[in-house]
């Protein structure tokens, strides 16, 4: 099977069907001389309903993402594999300029392959393979086989991003470590108190690098699965129980307290429980970091869970639009110093940190980027509302099924 395109298999299935139904597939030759020599395959008539239905019966047996298009590129049928893999994105794929250009140049028996990238609602890389097939009586269709290559695309981008981001962000702690090592070897070689002080700072810089690498790896894992919709069900009560347990070590003996307010009998929603917990943990950790910079203020963090429509959310919208149906909203609030409005739209950018804050000094700038990618995977929504001197509210909304 080496060297075969997936669309070769699809065309082969159509050919087998043609043998039993009187169809024929013409590849790379003109029609018989009895037909109009000036006929243009691009203007071929749409296939009859009977011929199309028989072809669909055969093609639906193939475990691949298959489309049947008319000569103009209109979708006549989408197989179950195509619906399962691409869903509502099928129209955007066929309308993509690269696909339209390939279809316009496609003549009978020709085949073409194009790569395209869809940026909304999440980035997806798609490889489409087209072949025009004659099914007799002057009728032709285009068979399209779609491959989701998003994971390969994510791996390649991850490699490039990792080198760029890691080399930039690791430069500062590495420079600090190098400087302290030179000092310990030189002026502080015989100064034990200075050695202990410098070793403490060096340990902090090493921990910062470890946090950065951990966050980069987590972000890479989230991006690689972003194009695949989660198949599980998330119980809000179970999520809150896990968040309460996992935040206990962060809160014990510290300046921050967590107050949870959850409505009763909330329904489950489609999602990945681990990722939803990760979103809430990132938001709570940020609230602790920002609030702990105010030495004269006890940090009070609230976690409120309700069933709501996205229209009820307030603040700057920095996540995907989740539509109008109901969902579950998790709101994480704090009484910290707040964030100026000019920073809010950029908070989910990688390595973006607000100058002059505790998080600017200790954070990686990746926590909210991870949050946004997880929300996009769930077709959710993120809004941020902040008032300087009063605090910040992050509201995450996940849609219910249906």
TrEMBL record:
<keyword id="KW-0812">Transmembrane</keyword>
<dbReference type="InterPro" id="IPR036097">
    <property type="entry name" value="HisK_dim/P_sf"/>
</dbReference>
<dbReference type="InterPro" id="IPR005467">
    <property type="entry name" value="His_kinase_dom"/>
</dbReference>
<keyword id="KW-0808">Transferase</keyword>
<dbReference type="InterPro" id="IPR000014">
    <property type="entry name" value="PAS"/>
</dbReference>
<keyword id="KW-0597">Phosphoprotein</keyword>
<feature type="domain" description="Histidine kinase">
    <location>
        <begin position="165"/>
        <end position="402"/>
    </location>
</feature>
<dbReference type="InterPro" id="IPR035965">
    <property type="entry name" value="PAS-like_dom_sf"/>
</dbReference>
<keyword id="KW-0067">ATP-binding</keyword>
<dbReference type="InterPro" id="IPR050351">
    <property type="entry name" value="BphY/WalK/GraS-like"/>
</dbReference>
<dbReference type="GO" id="GO:0007234">
    <property type="term" value="P:osmosensory signaling via phosphorelay pathway"/>
</dbReference>
<dbReference type="InterPro" id="IPR003661">
    <property type="entry name" value="HisK_dim/P_dom"/>
</dbReference>
<dbReference type="GO" id="GO:0000156">
    <property type="term" value="F:phosphorelay response regulator activity"/>
</dbReference>
<dbReference type="GO" id="GO:0005524">
    <property type="term" value="F:ATP binding"/>
</dbReference>
<dbReference type="Pfam" id="PF02518">
    <property type="entry name" value="HATPase_c"/>
</dbReference>
<keyword id="KW-0472">Membrane</keyword>
<dbReference type="GO" id="GO:0000155">
    <property type="term" value="F:phosphorelay sensor kinase activity"/>
</dbReference>
<dbReference type="GO" id="GO:0016020">
    <property type="term" value="C:membrane"/>
</dbReference>
<keyword id="KW-0902">Two-component regulatory system</keyword>
<dbReference type="Pfam" id="PF00512">
    <property type="entry name" value="HisKA"/>
</dbReference>
<keyword id="KW-0418">Kinase</keyword>
<dbReference type="InterPro" id="IPR004358">
    <property type="entry name" value="Sig_transdc_His_kin-like_C"/>
</dbReference>
<feature type="domain" description="PAS">
    <location>
        <begin position="51"/>
        <end position="129"/>
    </location>
</feature>
<keyword id="KW-1133">Transmembrane helix</keyword>
<dbReference type="InterPro" id="IPR003594">
    <property type="entry name" value="HATPase_dom"/>
</dbReference>
<protein>
    <recommendedName>
        <fullName>histidine kinase</fullName>
        <ecNumber>2.7.13.3</ecNumber>
    </recommendedName>
</protein>
<keyword id="KW-0547">Nucleotide-binding</keyword>
<dbReference type="InterPro" id="IPR036890">
    <property type="entry name" value="HATPase_C_sf"/>
</dbReference>
<dbReference type="GO" id="GO:0030295">
    <property type="term" value="F:protein kinase activator activity"/>
</dbReference>
């Amino acid at each position: 099977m080496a060297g075969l395109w997936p669309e070769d298999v699809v065309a082969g299935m159509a050919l087998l069907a043609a043998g039993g139904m009187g169809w024929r597939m013409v590849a790379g030759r003109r029609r018989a001389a009895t037909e109009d020599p000036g006929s243009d395959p691009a203007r071929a008539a749409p296939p009859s309903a009977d011929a199309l239905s028989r072809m669909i019966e055969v093609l639906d047996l193939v475990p691949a993402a298959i489309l049947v298009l008319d000569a103009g590129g209109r979708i006549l049928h989408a197989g179950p594999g195509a619906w399962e893999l691409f869903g509502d994105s099928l129209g955007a794929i066929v309308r993509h300029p690269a696909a339209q250009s390939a279809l316009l140049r496609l003549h009978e028996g020709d085949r073409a392959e194009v790569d395209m990238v869809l940026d909304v609602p999440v980035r997806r890389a798609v490889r489409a393979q087209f072949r025009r097939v004659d099914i007799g009586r002057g009728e032709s269709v285009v068979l399209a086989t779609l491959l989701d290559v998003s994971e390969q695309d994510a791996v390649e981008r991850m490699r490039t991003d990792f080198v760029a981001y890691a080399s930039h962000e690791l430069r500062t702690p590495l420079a600090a470590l190098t400087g302290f090592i030179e000092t310990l070897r030189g002026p502080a070689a015989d100064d034990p108190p200075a050695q202990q002080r410098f070793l403490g700072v060096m340990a902090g810089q090493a921990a910062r690098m470890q946090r950065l690498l951990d966050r980069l790896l987590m972000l890479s894992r989230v991006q690689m699965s972003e194009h695949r919709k989660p198949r599980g069900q998330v119980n809000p009560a179970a999520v809150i129980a896990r968040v309460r347990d996992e935040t206990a070590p962060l809160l014990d003996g510290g300046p921050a307290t967590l107050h949870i307010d959850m409505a009763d009998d909330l329904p489950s929603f489609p999602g990945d429980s681990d990722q939803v917990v990760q979103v809430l943990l990132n938001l709570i950790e940020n609230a602790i970091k920002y609030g702990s910079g105010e030495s004269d203020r006890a940090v009070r963090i609230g976690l409120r869970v309700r069933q709501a429509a996205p229209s009820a959310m307030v603040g700057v919208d920095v996540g995907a639009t989740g539509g109008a149906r109901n969902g579950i909203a998790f709101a994480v609030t704090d009484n910290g110093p707040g964030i100026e409005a000019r920073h809010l739209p950029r908070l989910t950018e990688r390595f973006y940190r607000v100058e002059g804050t505790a998080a600017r000094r200790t954070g990686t700038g990746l926590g909210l980027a991870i949050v946004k990618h997880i929300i996009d995977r769930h077709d959710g929504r993120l809004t941020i509302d902040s008032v300087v001197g009063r605090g910040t509210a992050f509201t995450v909304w996940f849609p219910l099924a249906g």
